[in-house]
Write a structure and sequence with these properties.
Layout lengths: L6 E7 L5 E8 L4 H11 L14 E5 L2 E2 L20 E8 L21
Parallel strand pairs: 1-5
Antiparallel strand pairs: 1-2, 3-4, 3-5
């Protein structure tokens, strides 16, 4: 394999249409590593950025990419043009917030007869 085939140039498209990258990544790079890179490079002016790898879904060629797979395993022969830039779409999952319950409010009701 040539050096060009050992690397992929990838840019990450955010939901507002802006991009992170493009940057070159070895084909052996895991999807989890790509997500860590996105977290590190997330634009500071954007609110609701991801905090962990689990907050991000990466989509390429219509498929959600699994963290344990490598970039090379996720390549699509139809979408990846040799020497071109691969675009992966980034979806940030909303943070789960547990509703605060008032300990004074009881869900039980007693009926006295």
């Amino acid at each position: 394999m040539s050096a060009a085939q050992d690397q992929l140039e990838i840019k990450f498209r955010l939901t507002d249409g802006s991009d992170i990258g493009p940057r070159n990544f070895p084909v052996a790079t895991s999807i989890a590593t790509l997500k860590e890179n996105i977290i590190a490079e997330w634009p500071r002016e954007k609110e609701d950025g991801p905090h962990t790898v689990k907050d991000i879904k990466l989509i390429s060629a219509g498929r959600i990419l699994e963290n344990s797979r490598s970039v090379g395993e996720c390549r699509s022969p139809l979408c990846d043009i040799p020497g071109g830039v691969t675009t992966m779409h980034v979806v940030v999952q909303p943070h789960e917030t547990k509703p605060q319950t008032d300990p004074k409010q009881s869900k039980c009701a007693c009926v006295i007869l």
